[in-house]
Amino acid sequence: MYQARLDPLAIGSDWNVALELMDADTGDPLDLTDMQFTVTMQPIRGGYMPVVGTTSNGHVTTPDDGVVVINFMAADMRGLSVGDYAVSLKAERDGFTEHLVIGTLPVVDGVNRNGFYL
Hints:
By secondary structure, this protein is mainly β. It is built from no helices and 9 strands.
């Protein structure tokens, strides 16, 4: 399992991040065949429903071996408020589940001084 501190996300923005997953022994990209992924974002301080994306709902894709792309549009993120979010990326294959990445995503105010989203 890897721990990550993700780059800040401004409210009103899309969140698109690509992760490269490599075999620790060989350095080769991980074979992601038949893996199902779930990413969950939940406020560390609680109080809001988590944002969940999966390979089934299209928020998580695997365009190539070793590459996992997480993609949420701004409309999917409307319920977020400023603060730190716990993020978890789980993989499931052949009845086994493993947390691949856990981390923190800081969500910041995306409004500039004129009141428009950046």
